[in-house]
Write a structure and sequence with these properties.
6-stranded parallel β-sheet, DNA polymerase, domain 1, elongated, 2 domains, Rossmann fold
């Protein structure tokens, strides 16, 4: 096993429980804006929003979608489906959603235990495609900022995962070579393929055991606590 110096981690749905926190925030927005006028159940609204949001983020990862279009379109789309074409409402929904979302503290199961374990052995860094205005607030709300020596955000440097240059920037900030680092992430495309193409070993956090149709990662786990057996 390589003697790693640094462990890089993705933030959303690797450390910070984006799925749970996002659903809580969206339910508050659904209630506050009386979106039951358009969607009789929250579950229907959540499904419609989430499917479109995933599609838009996949485009954003690869530079085929701007941040400005993403944050408006993901809320405008569900409204348009029910005959409401209101861009200003979509923008207000996004602003209030992000405000609620960034204050929520829930972490992925096992994340704090893993961070406690890792920080005693390695320097830690975050590499995230999230937005500046929310990622730092999420880190503060969940009380995990002290674990990390560097936080590299695509929104700050203008390069998204999986592009190798965001990983190179993280290596540069840590003053290490690719062989000295390993990346932990839940998104095969952004985290695993991106690290792989930069020569960084990877631990694919795959709690749903999604099939891997491309090159196998260096390691794969279904629980964060399994990482302790690897590092």
């Amino acid at each position: 096993m390589s003697e790693y110096k640094t462990v890089f981690l993705d933030l959303d749905d690797t450390v910070w429980d984006f799925t749970t926190n996002s659903k809580i925030a969206l339910e508050e927005i659904y209630r506050c804006y009386s979106l039951d006028r358009f969607y009789p159940t929250f579950d229907l609204y959540y499904k419609t929003y989430s499917e479109k949001n995933t599609e838009l983020w996949n485009l954003y990862h690869h530079g085929r979608m701007t941040k400005e279009i993403l944050v408006t379109e993901r809320f405008r789309y569900p409204l348009q489906l029910v005959g409401v074409d209101d861009t200003e409402l979509a923008k207000r929904l996004d602003k209030d959603y992000l405000s609620v979302l960034s204050r929520l503290p829930n972490l992925v199961m096992g994340a704090r235990e893993l961070l406690d374990y890792l920080v005693s052995k390695y320097t830690l860094g975050i590499i995230s495609n999230g937005f500046n205005e929310t990622q730092y607030r999420k880190i503060d709300a969940s009380g995990i900022g002290h674990y990390f020596s560097e936080i590299v955000l695509s929104d700050e440097i203008g390069i998204n995962k999986p592009h190798p240059d965001i990983f190179k920037e993280a290596l540069h900030r840590m003053s290490i070579e690719a062989a000295d680092a390993i990346m932990i992430g839940d998104n095969y495309d952004a985290d695993i393929r991106g690290a792989m193409h930069c020569g960084i070993d990877q631990i694919y956090f795959n709690p749903l055991s999604k099939p891997i149709e491309e090159e196998k990662p260096t390691y794969e786990v279904t629980s964060l606590l399994e990482v302790m057996k690897i590092l």
